[in-house]
Amino acid sequence: xxxxxxxxxxxxxxxxxxxxxxxxxxxxxxxxxxxxxxxxxxxxxxxxxxxxxxxxxxxxxxxxxxxxxxxxxxxxxxxxxxxxxxxxxxxxxxxxxxxxxxxxxxxxxxxxxxxxxxxxxxxxxxxxxxxxxxxxxxxxxxxxxxxxxxxxxxxxxxxxxxxxxxxxxxxxxxxxxxxxxxxxxxxxxxxxxxxxxxxxxxxxxxxxxxxxxxxxxxxxxxxxxxxxxxxxxxxxxxxxxxxxxxxxxx
Length: 250
Ligand SMILES: NC(=O)c1ccc[n+]([C@@H]2O[C@H](COP(=O)([O-])OP(=O)(O)OC[C@H]3O[C@@H](n4cnc5c(N)ncnc54)[C@H](OP(=O)(O)O)[C@@H]3O)[C@@H](O)[C@H]2O)c1
Prior knowledge:
By secondary structure, this protein is of the alpha/beta class. It has one domain: 3-Layer(aba) Sandwich (Rossmann fold), CATH 3.40.50. Helix content is about 50%, strand content about 15%. It contains 11 helices and 7 strands. The chain has a 7-stranded parallel beta sheet with strand order 3-2-1-4-5-6-7, with helices on both faces. Strand 1, helix 1 (about 10-25) and strand 2 (about 30-35) form a beta-alpha-beta unit. About 40% of the residues are buried. The mean pLDDT is about 95. NADP nicotinamide-adenine-dinucleotide phosphate binds near residues 13, 35, 59, 87 and 186.
């Protein structure tokens, strides 16, 4: 059985990836959709009646729930042609303002899950398959008032770059997606304590466009996918300027 597996498929960019997978040339025997909100995942088979979906309502921040996914994979023994990991969240605010439990939850969902999920999925990834991970432009440098989130996404970027090398001999393409602000439900939780800076509202990207570029970049085996001229400039600046200089202006 050949499948596409998408986490965070209940909202935002994960949702857009499901829609694009349905429009693409690739046909999958099943699309496995993962998130906590089952009611939203149940929407997919109703919308696309000709496609078979496997609904996995899992909290990926919890190790026992990852084990359930592992058991399902061992039972079905699928070949994964495309894996897209979108599940993640962030909370803006100073370290002293955010409850420690929420800071640790960010590390669990954004970092530990990437390590656990990848280890579970790798044996099932097909030769020539693709793996897409949602990092963020926040991965490019430390961010005061978004410290844990930015650090967690640096983890994702670093991890993806190493993983690429490790799976090169299996012809697996691995891409880290590093957008700036994207118009999704992300900010419902991220901006709960802090108002979103006005400039971020102005430069918010369309999720469909970010996702289209990410799929194309993965197809071309690009290490990083950065959407939009402004973010490309930011990426370049973060590479060539000392971070303390940029941080001075943030
Ligand atoms: N929006 C932005 O500005 C932006 C920019 C750069 C990077 N990103 C990254 O892009 C990814 C997707 O975010 P988005 O913008 O599409 O936000 P979103 O609309 O809030 O979607 C986040 C998805 O993650 C799932 N999720 C969160 N915690 C989970 C958990 N513990 N277990 C399983 N699923 C979980 C949510 O599903 P349930 O709630 O149903 O579980 C939801 O489907 C995230 O990793 C985010 O950090 C976002």
